[in-house]
Amino acid sequence: MTAQTTAIEAAALALGDDALVLSHRLGEWAGNAPVLEEDVALANIALDLLGQARVLLSLVGDEDELAYLREERAFRNTQLVEQPNGDFAHTIARQLYFSTYQKLLYGQLASGESPLSGLAAKAVKEVAYHQDHAEHWTLRLGDGTPESHTRMQQACDALWRYTGELFQPVDGLDVDLPAMENSWLESVTAVLEQATLTVPDGPRTGAWTAGAGRQGLHTEPFGRMLAEMQHLHRSHPGATW
Q1: Which of 4, 15, 26, 75 is the most exposed place for a label (fewest CB within 10 A)?
Q2: How does DSSP classify residue 151?
Q3: Mapped to the 3 state alphabet, what secondary structure does 99-116 carry?
Q4: Are the CB atoms for 184 and 101 separated by under 8 Å?
């Protein structure tokens, strides 16, 4: 195995874990979304992400084993995607932050010659819808009732500290992270301002922020989520349906 292959696998694992974990979080809304239309929309986004995860994890090894048999410290997803759904505003803020990042990332990868370029070219079209969906709801909640505005602002503020990790270097990802981060800030700021929301002023990097998911250090809710996600497979090893 060459060093280049190892680096690509590291990148595929990180991006695959992001997609897998967020897919599961969004799947938790099935049957619980505020309206039936959103039940379907969130399920479709979750399926898009699951498809991305399967392709990416298959570049590393057996996708089922990687999803269901790894311990918590072996996952390389960012801490943002593992945060609980909370109320609907929290889910939308998490989706706005992550889908904006994912679209920029896949846009850069699709234009390059990385082994991940083929996946990126397809996924960037899916993620464009994810971002549009999140922006629509951010505007609707932020510029809605006083209650929806307050909840959306609280969600944006609470999740802001997790966004800096999105732009930390990952082995095997040959992208311009500073340019991505600048574009991300411009895009997110424009949406929040249009939604009459205040851009959070808390730090995104440094000692008081989150950012060790890529190193296998996760927040407390992730352990509970992982136990639920892996329960059936671990309870019936080797079973087929």
Answers
A1: 4
A2: H
A3: HHHHHHHHHHHHCCCCCC
A4: yes
Q: Which among 185, 148, 180, 183 has a CA at the least distance from the CA of 167?
A: 180
d(CA 93, CA 100): 11
What would the two tokens of residue 128 be? 């464009």
* 32 in Cβ contact with 139 (< 8 Å): no
pTM listed for this prediction:
0.94
Closest CA to 98 of 165, 8, 34, 41: 165
* Contact yes or no for 193/60 (Cβ under 8 A): no
Question: Are 88 and 148 within 8 A, CB to CB?
Answer: no
DSSP 3-state assignment of 22?
helix
Question: What distances in angstroms separate CA 46 from CA 3, 6, 185, one per listed residue?
Answer: 32, 28, 25
Q: Which of 99, 95, 17, 91 is nearest to 50 (CA)?
A: 17
The model's pLDDT over 103-134, given as tens digits with 9 standing for 90+, comes to 999 999 999 888 999 999 999 999 999 999 99
pLDDT tens, residue by residue, 143-184: 999 999 999 999 999 999 999 999 999 999 999 999 999 999
Sign of dihedral through CA atoms 101, 103, 104, 105?
positive
**Cα gap 24→121, rounded to integer Å:** 23
Can you say whether the dihedral through the CA atoms of 199, 204, 207, 213 is positive or negative? positive
- The closest alpha carbon to 77, from 110, 100, 46, 53, belongs to 53
